[in-house]
Amino acid sequence: MKPSIATSIGQIQLDKPVMLASGILGISLDVFNRLYASGAGAVVTKSLSTVSWEGYPNPTIFSVKGGGWINAVGLSNPGASNFAKMIEPNQDVPIIVSLVGSVPEDFEMMIKEFKNCKVKAYELNLSCPHVAKVGLEVGDDPGLVKAIVSTVKNATDVPAIAKVGLGTSNYLNTVSTAIDCGIDAITAINTVRAMAIDVETQRPILSNKFGGLSGTPIKPIALRCVYEISSKYDIPIIGCGGISTWEDAIEFFLAGASGVQLGSAIGDNWVGVFDDINKGILDYMKRKNYSTIKEMVGLAKKS
Amino acid sequence: MQRNLNHPTIVTIEKVIDETPTVRTLVFSDDVMPTVLPGQFAMVWIPGVNELPMSVMISKESGKAAFTVRKHGPSSTGLFNVPVGGQIGIRGPYGNSFDVKEGKLLLVGGGTGLVPMMRLLSFVKPTDDVTVLMGAKSKDEVFFEDLSNELLKNNPHQVIVSTDDGSYGEKGFVTDLVEKLVSETHFDAVYVCGPEIMMYKTVQAAHAKQIFVQASLERMMKCGVGICGSCCVGEDLACRDGTVFDGGHLSKNKEFGHFHRNKAGILENY
Ligand SMILES: Cc1cc2nc3c(=O)[nH]c(=O)nc-3n(C[C@H](O)[C@H](O)[C@H](O)COP(=O)(O)OP(=O)(O)OC[C@H]3O[C@@H](n4cnc5c(N)ncnc54)[C@H](O)[C@@H]3O)c2cc1C
Ligand SMILES: Cc1cc2nc3c(=O)[nH]c(=O)nc-3n(C[C@H](O)[C@H](O)[C@H](O)COP(=O)(O)O)c2cc1C
Ligand code: FES
Question: Where substrate is bound, by residue (chain A) (predicted)?
Fold first, then answer.
């Protein structure tokens, strides 16, 4: 049988397993169409808030000398309602809407804005490391995670994904709380809180001083998290963090992910990266005699 | 370690040239920036102020490059005020570049849109017949006229200045002159950089005559490398697919000449 790279992440069915991660290239439907045509299995939007945010002043992104990126864009976004209007015409592209907020009502309100849109899933950003009162500060508060996930699950039948990252508390508690409240899948991980200081001018480079580290340096950390979650819980997982080649994607499948997302690799290799990875996965499957992605998921845990 | 072009490299300003009361050229030494292609830009960090996209300007001295900045809001004013000895961070070069054609060339620049045109002039062949059209609001704001003539001293050429108020050169909008020139003369290529409405009209005029035309687009830029999405124009990313686009491509883009995005990414009319 000819192998297929289609995958299911719980209820979420995708023709291709590599998605665009949230916050990357995510503000125009035309760009989403292009990325879908370039081989992305789905696109995750920038994290949207109830009102539009300008984000932080520049510098907001730069790459680290040894590889990887640090960003503190500050969740700049046009707001849920403006964004919903833009994607309303969409029929073809599987769009996962990422939401960020500080109280359950924010999420409930935003989900209403998307009632006329075809939304494949909602991804709840519980892990942005550089904006106060949202993201990690929410993820680190189990009571808030519980309230938000329960509210979202009541507000919509569309599958909900919790995106976790490394905050001050053990991220596995966030995972377990979200699972208890009925979350459909987990994305792991967001960027890792970081900074860089310029030695000539003796200043932090980012205007926000702290930002999130992404790209190849965080891949081993993200992989460990996916392996850890899949070892402890029975929940569909999307791996994210430093993926830039087909080998990286396969590593995440073997660790227990059913799909992957990438962001920084676009800065390094541009949009052709999706097709390259898809082809590599398919060749690997042919060589190893797998007909579905599912057969590979979690295989590294045999022994 | 080899230089990471996406990480700010600190350079020291060696010379400041006042071009007009509001425009300055800041000259610095660097290994990379003096050799970039015409149209490429850098992300320029003014520590404590902001980081801005800037076209890379030529310098007459080898091993040196420059930025020519107009003071406008707080960020560009911050760069404008960097003194000799001051330090700025640069990353890049980013973006593609103009296709340097041969023959009869028309270069159209408005304001600091003239910067990439000056680098383009340093790439023309001595046999090219070059017309430079520069637009400014008034006589005070005209710059690079002498530099253009100097760069073209070995070429058949003309440098035409137009001012909106007629205080110097031809009176009127530069786009009226473009329309006149392309209808009267055969050009092998037209290049334009400046305010978007000016580029839109120039592209339309040249494209209608089936003349090869390229424009260098300006959008809100945060990363410069195609990650943040803030610079999108339809399905194109100005920083990564451009900034230089062909007229044929632009005439199919729904946003070019009509919309741009603010800092939150909301589409706004020009
Ligand atoms: C590819 C490119 C090349 C450019 N080359 C030059 C040049 O050679 N000389 C020159 O004077 N100007 C150039 N500009 C414009 C310049 O980057 C600034 O936009 C302009 O100087 C206005 O700055 P400001 O002081 O008003 O910004 P402020 O009003 O102080 O705004 C600050 C913030 O807005 C952002 N911002 C505002 N406008 C823009 C914009 N159009 N693009 C990107 N970010 C923006 C800045 O990044 C910053 O974060 C170029 C722009 C681009 C995109
Ligand atoms: C510029 C930039 C903006 C980001 N914005 C968001 C965001 O809005 N919401 C979110 O959940 N994650 C955001 N992220 C994190 C990414 O989605 C992803 O989790 C992280 O970059 C790790 O993946 P990568 O190494 O493939 O980039 C952003 C990352 C970058 C680099
Ligand atoms: S400036 Fe970030 S995508 Fe172009």
Answer: 46, 71-75, 125, 190-191
Residue of B nearest to A268 (CA): B225
Domain of A117 in residue numbering reads as 7-301
ipTM of the complex as predicted: 0.93
User: What's the residue count for chain B?
Assistant: 270
- What is the H or E stretch that residue B207 is in? helix B196-208
In this structure, how many other beta carbons lie within 10 angstroms of the beta carbon of residue B42?
29
Q: Which amino acid is at B250?
A: L
Domains, chain B, in order of start with CATH, read 9-94 (2.40.30.10), 104-218 (3.40.50.80)
Which residues lie across from B90 on neighbouring strands? B9, B44
Identify from B3, B7, B12, B259 which residue to disrupt to test chain A contact, counting A C-beta atoms within 10 A and taking the largest count: B7
Note down pLDDT in tens along chain B; length 270 residues: 689 999 999 999 999 999 999 999 999 999 999 999 999 999 999 999 999 999 999 998 999 999 999 999 999 999 999 999 999 999 999 999 999 999 999 999 999 999 999 999 999 999 999 999 999 999 999 999 999 999 999 999 999 999 989 999 999 889 999 999 999 999 999 999 999 999 999 999 999 999 999 999 999 999 999 999 999 999 999 999 999 999 999 999 999 999 999 988 898 888
Q: Do A172 and A228 contact (CB within 8 A), yes or no?
A: yes
Q: What is the pTM of this model?
A: 0.95
Number of domains in chain A: 1
**B193 marked ligand binding residue:** no
Query: A159: domain CATH number?
Result: 3.20.20.70
